[in-house]
Structures are given as C-alpha cells and as structure tokens.
What does this fold into?
Amino acid sequence: MIIGLRGLLPMLALSLTMVLSGCESSEDRAERYFKSGMELLAAGDEDRALVEFRNVFKYNGFHKQARQTYADIQLKRGDVAEAYSQYLRLIEQYPDTAPVRLTLAEIAIDRGDWDEAERHGRAALALDPASPGIMAVNIALDYRVVRLADDAAGIATTVARARDLLVTTPDNLVARRIVIDDLINGPEPKAALPELDGILALAPGNLEFHVLKLQLLVEAKDTAAAGAQLKAMFQQFPDNDRIRAGLVAWYMEQGDVDGAEAYLRQLAAAAGDEPAPQLAVVRLLQQARGNVVAQAELTKLIAAHEGKPVADLYRALHATIDFEDGEQTDAIIAMESILKSAAASEQTRSLKVMLAKMLQATGNSVGARARVEEILAEDPAYVEALKMRAAWLIEEDKPGEAIVDLRTALDQNPRDPSILMLMATAHERDGSAELATERLALAVEVSGYGAEESLRYAGFLLTQPDGEATAEKVMLDALTVSPTNIDLLRGLSEVLLGNRDWLRAKAVATQLRAVGTSEASQAADRVETAILLGQEKTDEGIAFLQSQIEKGGANIATVAQIIQIQVRSGKQTEARAYLDSALAKTPQDTGLRFLSAMLHDLMGESEPAETLLRTLIAEDPAAEQAVRTLYGILLKQNRAADAATLLTAALATQPESVALRWMKAGELEIAGDIDGAIQIYESLYAENSSNLIVANNLASLITTHRSDPESLERAFAVARRLRGSDQPAFQDTYGWIEYRRGNFEEALINLEPAAKGLADDPMVQLHVGLTYAALKRNPEATAALTRALELSGDSPLPQFQVARDALAKLATAPSP
It folds into this structure.
C-alpha cells in the first residue's frame, strides 16, 4: 500500500513522540505524573489525582512530595490504614520529617497504639521541639505515664501543661483529649461536657467524641440530654446503624413507642422502596405492639408493592412470624410456594436461607442442607449459606473444612462478627486456642465491643491460663458501650469476686441496681451477698438476704442461700429451724420440701430424706432434681440395685433427659458395659457436640477400651479441642489419644501435667508410665507404673495387667 504525504505526517509526529519519550528518564516521567496529579487535585479531581501519584511511585519510589500528598488525601478521605502505611514508608525514606512523625504519632494515639505513638512522638520532639502539635503529643505521652502510675502530682502538672498549650492553640485536639480524660477521671465526670462541646465544635465529624459525650450523659442519668445528643449524632451520621438503633432504644426507654415509630417511618419514607427501613418499622411494631400488628403492616407493604420482587420478601417475613407463633407447617408451605416461582437473585437466595433455618429448626436437616447446597451451587460465596454449612461441619468434627468455608465468607464480609465467632469455634474445635483467641478478639473489635461478642471472648479467656485480666478489660470496654447490660455486669462481678476485689464488686452491684429491673436487682443481691460472705460476715449476709425476703423479693434461691450459709457456718440446727418455719407457712411448697430433703441428707438423716424425695417423685415423675439427689443417696448407701431401679423408672418418664442419660452411661461403665456407655455418649454428643465434658468422656472411653484405627481417629476428632487445656482430666484424655496414635512426645506434654494434677488416679499414672516406657525413660516409667498399681488395689481391669507386664519388661531391660 502506498502512503501519501498527508498520511506520512501523522506517522512522523508519532515517531517523534516515541523517540522523545524513549529519551525521557524515570525521574522525568515521575515528575510529569506528579505535576499532572497536582493539577487534577487543584481541579478537585482526587480520584484521578491518586492514580497519577501511584504512577509517580512506579518511576520514583522516593518522590517525597508525591507520597506525602497521596497519604494526606487518603487520611482526609478516611482511609487511615492506607494513609498510615504511606506515612511509614515516607519515614523510612526520610526519617527526619517532623510533620510526618507528628501525623504518625497522632494516628497511633487515636488507635491506642502507645508504643508507636512513643516512637514517633519522641522522634518528632527531637526534630522540632517548638511545634505546638508535637508538644501536645509529648504531653499526652507524659500524661499516660503518670496516669498509669496514679501519680496525682504528675497528673496535675501534665494537665496544666495541656491547658497552657490550649491558650495559644485552642484547636489542638490532642491537648483537649488530655483535659477531657482528666475531668472524666475526676470526682465530677460531668465537668468534661463543656470541653467535649468545645472539641465537637472544632471536629463535628469525630464519632469518638460524640460517643464519649453520650456516655457521660447516660451515666449522669440525664435522659433528655442523652436523647438530644443521639438526635444530633443521627444528623451528623445518618447512615450509622448503631446510632439509629440507639435512638430507637432511647425512645423505647422513655416509653415513647409512638415517637420511635414516627422516627422509623420518617426513615422509611425517605428510603422509597428500599426494604430495610420498612422492615425496621415492622420489627418495632412486632416488639412493641405484637405479631398481629406487625403482620398487618407487612400485609400493607405486600399490597403496596404487589408485582414487585420485594413483595415476596414481605410475604416471607409474614410466614416467619407465623413460624414463630407455632404455625410451622403452614409457614414452611408458604415459603416453598414463594420460592417455587422466584427467579434466581440475591433476594431469592436470602429467602432460601430463611427456609433452610425453618427446616433445621423443625428437625429436617436433610431439607435444610439441600436448600443451602442449592444456594451455594448458584453462588459459592454466599455468606449466610456458608455460615450454615460451616456450623454443620463444626458439629461433624470437620473444623478444617468449616474454616475453608468461613474464610470465603470473610472475604465477602470481613467485618462480620458472626463469621469471626464461628471461625473461633472451628479453631477451638481443632485445638488451636491461639487462633480462636485472635478471632474472638477481632470479633469484639469489629462489633464495636458488642455485648454478645465481648461476653463470648471474655468467657473463652477465662478458660485459658492467665486470661482473667484480659477478660476483665474486655468486659469493662464493652460496658462503656453498653453500661446497663446485665450479663456484662454479672460477668464482671464474678471476676471481681473471684479476685476478692470487694470495693469494685460493690460498685458493680450499685450499677446493677441503677438498671432498675427485677433481674438486675436480683443480680445485685447476689453480688452483695457474695461480698459479705467473702469477707466472712456471715451474720450480715444472712440478715441482708432476710431483708430481701421481707421486702417481697424472696424466691427459693434466696432461702436456699440462707440455709447454705448456715450449714457452711456449722449452724445446722439453726438451718433446720429456719427452714421448718418457712415450711410452716407454705407446707406444700415443692422447692422448700426439696430443700428440706437435702438438709436431712446433709445432717445424716437419710431415711426422712429418702421418704420426702420419693414423695416428690411420686407427685411429679419428671422431678429430675429429686431423682438425681435420691440416686446419689442410694449409691452412698451401697444400694446400687435400688439406684438402678430408680434411674430406669425416671428414664421411662424422661427418655430425653441429658442428666439422666449421663447417669445411665456412668452406671453402664461401672457395670462393664462399655459399648452401652459409649452409645449413650455418642447420642449426647450428636445432640450437642460443643459440650466439653461429653466430648472428653466419649473420647476417653473409646481410647481406653478400643484399639482399632478407625476408633482412634474418631476419638482424636472428638478430643483434639482438648489440646493445650490446663484441666488434668482433659490433658489425660488428649495425651492418651496421642499415645495410642504413636505420638509419644506430644502425649507426654499433656500426660505429665495430668499426672501431677491427678496424682491419686491410677489410670492417669498408668498412662504417663506407659508413655515414659515408650520413650525409653525407664526409671520414670517404673516409678509411675508402680504408683498406678499401688493405687489400683485389686482392680480387675485389664489395663492394670498391662502395667504389670510393662514393669516386668522394664525389670529385665538393659540399662540405657
């Protein structure tokens, strides 16, 4: 093809450009992109400016101004993590840049990362000691030191420095934080409110200060001001779900259901056809006015959106309320009818999850799983379906597979606390306590210290060595968000009582009373009683409980506590007189008669105890507590046959009772029917595989009495969650499983502490002795096996013949 002059000119121009660009250095290209980025930034086009700055880094990773500008933009846009990483890179390249050191220190203070704040804040001070911002950061660092040391004089001096700095730089937020913290920790925390108003005038978009102000108003019981603050927060952060929920809760606490409804209807009207705000109205109506009113609202929504897919959502929720009301079959039929003609969509998958949960609740796990698999066939990353499948996998002792599903779910919703808590359960089931701890800590963080997540984390920490202090801190942090949560207050009180921290436990009791509900008052009573008893003020404790009874707050638990105190104090006669006087007033009270039977037993009066318990059982064959108590009395009297007859009759009445079946398993084990005992534990485990004691007993029986590889792997799958436990019984079970699997070193790590903790248990001594022998540690093996035989007496169990054989072999073994 011949190219004419007119066609040649553009090609020459292109060639010239290519030649020129080929001569352009990397630094020149970087500078060209930087100038372009700055021009775009000046024009207000931040997104394209950021792209240009990233191009700068491709050609010059050390371009200081580009990186700082890029980081400043990200910080302004709220991407603190990205900004922080860029500032860190900048400091690595240019360590003497004081403003960047200051920014890093301020971000670290916001995060509570005091080590990083110290590193960058002190470095900034050395570079520019006259900078007010750097001065404020260093005052904050000093303040933290004296506050932790409870140095009153140091605190006063440091706060004075902060106040002096505010005279010349009143907009310094770090200095204001110091003044506010000092006031909050002072005798009148409410005095911090004017300072908070000042800081909010400077930084109205700072959620932390808004929340702090709200907490102070709540603690001061200034309900009207707290409501006004919530409304102001809603205006500032209209998309914050927690603030919306808090405002609704405030209306409800005032008993203003109409106000809450009007507020939610206002949000719903502004949202148009968006279903979430409409459903918030439905939930409020259901909670405050009942299911009938909620379903009437859903009927209106269905009519208003007929022909639109969202109408199916409202129909499904109508069916869900029917399901909750006990109309389970009709609700499931309605859901299946809705789904029959529904096209594949996000909403349809959500409705399938709702149906799967209904099917699971009615015992149709096959149908539930089929629906979940349908969802995942359409969308392998559908979060709610992955969570359901992961929960089933955990129950089936397949934690590794569950973790795979949950990682996929977490990729979609990285800040979903429920995914993280499920992952913690999977790691715990897999014996990875450290990973479980990390996941629970993250769940607490992303939930904003939610009560449910914090209680779960604290409960887990309390099962771990040295976890008590962290558990206490977690609950304290959660209480700053939910100061009236009874479960959190109760959990904190238990930790404080365990530490004999009477003063702070008393403060928790006071906080419980301030909640104002009967449940909270009863919890406060228990805390105050425990304080008195812990201080060995027995008479005061009884008097306190008696005063609660006289105020009309009595229940059977209070009476039982008084009797228990008297018995512990050696005052059995007084306990009997007190109980008899209570029975004289209400002689047919079942609870009091049961207490009377127990007191007879404690006083060695077995005959009247048995008579009374048999009467209670005759009156109510389902009286499980009476059966269990009488069963124990009969065994103490060596009346095993009578105990067995009692248990058989009770099981005929209550075949699903967990406690009674547990007792039957123990009975079968003693009788040598190991397969029967294992069968019961297997059924209990299938019903609730999270029960640690059931898991331990099942695994222990399997490994003690079975030796085939399949059984050993089954025991390992059940018991691996016990790895790393500090409970001797659990250590023995897991260690013996590892021994049976040939992992002798791992076995010994668990069996040595178990043998110390259960020094008089012959089976545990046998286990550690055989492990020593397997590791050729003959002197220790001989000592442990000898001890096992001494403790076993004339036990006919074949395991002790194994011990004799092992000792004989050790006696003839050559010295190592």
